[in-house]
Amino acid sequence: MTSHNKQYDHKKVEAFWQDEWNKKKLFSVKNQGEPYYVLEMFPYPSGRIHMGHVRVYTLGDVLARYKRAKGFDVFHPMGWDSFGMPAENAAIENAIHPKEWTKNNIDNMKTQLKSMGISYDWKSEISTCEPEYIKEQQKIFIKLFNANLIYKKESWANWDPVENSVLANEQVIDGKGWRSGAPIEKKLLNQWFLAITKFAKPLLDNLDNLKEWPENVKIMQKNWIGESIGAKLSLKIIKNNIILDIKEIEVFTTRPDTIFGASFVAIAPDHTLSEKLSKGSKVVEKFIKEWKKSFISEEDLDKAPKNGLFTNLYVLHPFLDIPLPIYIANFVLSSYGTGAVIGVPAHDQRDFDFAKKYDLEIKQVIREPQIKKNVPLKKAYTGNGLLVNSNFLNNMTVKEAKIEIINRFEIKGIGKKDIKYRLRDWCASRQRYWGCPIPIIYREDGAVLPVEQSELPIELPTDIDFSKGGNPLENHPTWKYTTCKKTGLKALRETDTLDTFFDSSWYYLRFINSKDELNLKSDLIKKWCPVHQYVGGIEHAVLHLLYSRFLIRALSSINEIEIQEPFKGLFCQGMVCHKTYKDEENKWVFPEDIVKKENILTHKITGKKVSAIKSEKMSKSKKNIVDPVSIIKDYGADTARIFMLSDSPPERNLDWSNSGIEGSRKFIIKIWNFFNKLNFKENNYDKNLEFEDYKSSDFIKKMHLCIYKVTKNLDNFQYNVAVASLREFSNYFLSLKLNNNNNEILHKVLSIWVIMIGPIAPHFAEELWKILGHETLLAEQPWPKSDERFLQETNINFIIQINGKKKCVVNLPKGLTKDQIENIVLENDDIKKMLINNNIKKIIIIPDRVANLVV
RNA sequence: GCCCACUUGGCGGAAUAGGUAGACGCAAGGGACUUAAAAUCCCUUGUCUGUAAAGACGUCCCGGUUCGAGUCCGGGAGUGGGCACCA
Fold it and tell me: Deepest of A117, A199, A539, A689, by most Cβ within 10 A of its Cβ?
């Protein structure tokens, strides 16, 4: 038994129990019970965990421990997303090899993660830069290559001149590289693409079946895939004596109903016609050249002025026989639809802005229902209404007109219904060293072939020189030179490596049998997949999660795997935020360097005045980082965990505060002191619980209510409320005036409470469990069940309202009839007084809840 | 510009099914203990009126549905996040 009144030594306690769990291999798969795969997004090994990690891994661990207690066979692995840019940057800046840098970081982060006491099955650890992982990934690549789901094409790429590499569009922020910050230029490159657009429809449709995904993530993916139902339409070019071999332009429009309002056609600067025109025209050539340089984010472009260049060409309006001018315009994207649009200024805002600028006709063809007179439009009208000025479409609704006009297109043989997606194929090529090599060779006779299986994995060369810049593999003296094993012909290796999103698109499959050869059709994968609960940041709502969904579908379409979706349940946690401060020179200041005197904030060292800005996501640049390693050292993992879980709902942002972490520590010490005052003698309990003020039945009732609440809260991811419910009940037992501290009921109730705090503060709970005299491990205890009988109230507080406002509360037995209640209400003295000058018009009675008198 | 989310005391937040708004915590104030401080414990704390009893108001704003709205519907404002001009 633990000695009394000793200090709670979190370092000793936490290390001890982590060791015990480890020795007993508690967190390995048991192969009994219903399988439950809990996975948190694996980290990039930056070298130090941050508060965001602490939050997400705490959330995942609460779930894993809770499900284990509930009898599930929990699989909870952890690994490393270990390829990527920072290792290469470190190599350049600090002359350390990426492999070594990454390995050191993993070692450090693993130690830090272990200090948090998370219930990982470390046996299954994986790292995406290891040869075993690369090998399996290259096999997957070859499968997709052979099925034509990976292909090479020339395409505009975002060229980062500092990194000498291509960035995906979504990796470009404000026209700059998301890591280098360098302005991005357009460059045409031949690159590897994954055919995600082939799966646009099923990826979209199956979102409806992801019942355990947050609605906002599904909406984001839906918008990202962006299905548009419209029409494809061919327009004849007239008065064409410039380009003779192009006789018509194909446009895609989602609003074919507005065709009678069309006043121009706009094509993308890289449309075939634009390119042809540029060869014969200096003006066009200059316009396109400017467009190539002016790569800025699409968002900025949205706000930027619409620019266009008249081509001196016209198309013929298919129904009005009038010429419509063709413009090359900066707001038309070649990657969407056909790269050409038909401009209807009255009913599309971009077309409206363009028409205003170039003085084109704005002809309204849909009447707004509210407005009667024909007032000139101030902006485009995109809503519903009846068609006007539209010949045979007049008086139809938008919906009817769409159907009719497509009909007419088909009769005339100029167009038809068409569906387009805004989703683009996934560019997976990276001109970098620290990534998975693409297992392809280019033979001297021109053949492009996958590497033979027996040669896998193709590993990176270790002797690498970063001093030249550019693509290190391309620059390596020997690595790329090889021969074709079948023919003996000379060949060159592909020197692009894979986007790290590829690595993270299937890693959850690798965990399952991390050491053996990957068999995607194995029973183990069928047993554990899809992942029952995936936890991670909302920032991955689209890319990572959509790519993962795609990869499974691609493999499943070629019969390589038998699951359709990677993640059954998804939970996205909020960011960890902290106050930011700036001094008078507008420089960020560390919060710990600030002193407060009479409500004036000053810098501890410089003495300069400092002002609080706001609470923002923790980031190094804003100096509002709190280091979890020192927090765990000073306060302990359990205190950090309790703080992470209290107060803020997991899906919302959490504000770091010192008083919050202090409060969590006080709670632990308070409970600790209480438990140390107890003195249970096993097998010698007093059966009758005696309190000065309470009946034991109340105590048991409250305990069952607590079980009910905490269980429900955990099931609903309301971890903050679960902590509150546990504190609420602890406030109750802490306040009891005990006559006897060796009581069986008390022992039982406290044991149950300790089991329930287990997933939240696991080391602390083990320690309390020991104080209670148990010789088992708390982590192995089953979750308690609340007994319905104790949740039934015999009396309820019944509310009496007058005109919907609460007037008084009476305590009534449960189950009274409406008539009985009405009598009681009308006989109530307070109510009688209030009714003296009023006539009752109506009485509404909801038994066991409320009565409302309408007067 | 477009899309999404959010808005409840001094603060973080709670509130099955529309039925006692403010659980739990933080901060603040008062008290006890102490030579003193820290720690701990006890009390108070949505706003307004009132000595009090009590009453009125109150979940971003405006309107609606309802006997009854934090909760449902329509419109608006503010804050945060995302974005690839998606025709």
Answer: A117
